[in-house]
Amino acid sequence: MYYAYKYRLKPSDAHHEELDRHQDICRQLYNHTLYRLNGYQDGHGELPSMTSLWSELPDLKKWRDDISDAYSKVLQTVVERLFDNLNGLSELKQNGYGVDQLKWKPPREFRSFTYSQSGFKLDKKGGQTVLSLSKLADIPIRLHRAIPDVHKSNSSCAAHQKSPISEDDATLKQVTLKKEPIGEWFATFGVHFDRASAAGRRSSLMMSSTSFVCFLKMSSRGHRRGLVHSSKTATAPHTIRHISAGSCAKQG
N or C: which end of the chain has fewer CB within 10 A? Predict the structure, then answer.
């Protein structure tokens, strides 16, 4: 299972400039990669592989200094984004839709870039929580809810609230920075949850919660207190099922 957690960034004017600059670097790389892809296809009659275009990035940095300012993983995700768009067009074509070729992106149509796997972390600096982005900046972020996986990396971070899903079930995969049309920046964290482990924990939590609710109902009305307080029933699964399915239904 894959979940997205979106938070508002609180960048300064200097941060705004850097975010805009890195976004434009990624946009220009996207357009350049599309140009290289089309040129390769015209010369070879087929599309190049994504890894072959990745391999061109070091040479591209030598004659484009601005590209060297961006984190390497961010540049790789730009190439991935192009291939994702190609795959999307291919699927539409297979389903009978008329599709056009990919076009260059103007600034208004390219408003996000992604750190994948590495190059980002949540930290605590100057009394506030910041999103630390490699080769960019430490940008203040408003964390209104917890991100499960960050519990593993930095215990001092303000994001380390109690999460209903165990940190052992979650893996923080990426963060996407996006500028909305109104000019505000947001960070969306992609978190992958282990389906089997998370389902097992939720099932256990639901059983415990149901039994506790039944205990409260019975205790408040003075019914069968001894049964619930018994150490034997506290560990016997069949007794818990009896309490939650039978007694609760009767007390209704």
Answer: C
- Cα 108 from Cα 71, distance rounded (Å): 22
**Whether 123 contacts 129, CB under 8 Å:** yes
> Got the DSSP string for 54-108?
HTTHHHHHHH-HHHHTS-HHHHHHHHHHHHHHHHHHHHHHHTT-------PPPGG
Query: Do 136 and 246 belong together in one domain?
Result: no
Question: Which residue type is seen at 12?
Answer: S
Length, in residues, of the chain? 252
Residues 76, 169, single domain; the answer is yes
Residue 231's domain comprises 196-251
pLDDT in tens, 94-135: 888 888 889 999 999 999 999 999 999 999 998 899 999 999
pTM, 2 dp: 0.71
Last residue of a domain, one of 193, 221, 240: 193
